[in-house]
Amino acid sequence: MAVFSSPKLKQKLFLLRQQKKRETFHYFWRSILVSCLTGSLLWCATLPEWKIQQPKQVEIEGNFLVTEDTIHVLLSLSYPQYIWAIPTKNLSENLESITPIISAKVTRQIFPSRLRISVKERKPVALALSPGQVGFLDAQGIWIPANFYSHSATNFSLPTIKVVNFQPDYRSAWVEIYRLITLYNRVKIFEVRWQESHNLVLQTELGTVYFGSPSFRLEDKFKVLAQLKNLPDYVKGSSVAYIDLTNPDIRLIEKYPINSKISP
């Protein structure tokens, strides 16, 4: 049985074949274009311009006491290295792993290729002596080993306060002590010494001050100490041996006898 197609059907089939050819042609050239662009991008990405080739391409800001050499050691970067391949999050975590640095942010600069590092440091507010150790304390009682500042590029001035016999258990007490030192600052304090956990002794411009337990009315003791700023004017001709403020309601001031020889 013969089947005869109408002229309209033939025309429609012809148009469909033409459309398919055009689509195949466009797909072919689109694939070539995408391949060329991809290849060009890959080629560009492997150019030396996209590499971190030496330490001077690493820009560091925010460090005042921690040296750049210390930061480079912590980064442990190998050179050369493509900027895309550098694990910025891991580098930030490496820097934050040392106590002098509170936070660190590592970002990439694509062109020209740079690695930007911004750090925020802890501020040492006291020289700290612990059995067998020397370091620093910040206002939050974080212990910072002294070796981090031994080669500081800046003129590192030692804090004026010395903390003796510091223990990790005293951290919360130190936070409150330092807050009160800065709040009631009329009398200069040079040393904070723990004789034991319940016996605090201060060396001040007025002499030795016994505070006793830091957990008992500590702020009242600092208030009384600030009120004694002019004490030397009232003890002329003699020197203060010590001041006992273990009970801030009873101010015991022991003086050396007039013209007595004070042993060093």
From TrEMBL:
Establish whether keyword Metal-binding is in the entry: no
Q: Give the UniProt keywords, A-Z.
A: Cell cycle, Cell division, Cell membrane, Membrane, Transmembrane, Transmembrane helix
An example Gene Ontology CC term for this record = plasma membrane
Q: GO:BP terms for this protein?
A: cell division
Q: Where is the POTRA domain?
A: 56-122
What InterPro entries does the database record attribute to this sequence?
A: FtsQ_DivIB (IPR050487), POTRA_FtsQ_type (IPR013685)
One Pfam family from the record = POTRA_1
Q: Its domain of life?
A: Bacteria
> What PANTHER family does this protein map onto?
CELL DIVISION PROTEIN DIVIB, CELL DIVISION PROTEIN FTSQ
Question: What is the protein name given in its UniProt record?
Answer: Polypeptide-transport-associated domain protein FtsQ-type
Query: Origin organism of this chain?
Result: Stanieria cyanosphaera (strain ATCC 29371 / PCC 7437)
Q: What is the lineage of its organism?
A: Bacteria, Bacillati, Cyanobacteriota, Cyanophyceae, Pleurocapsales
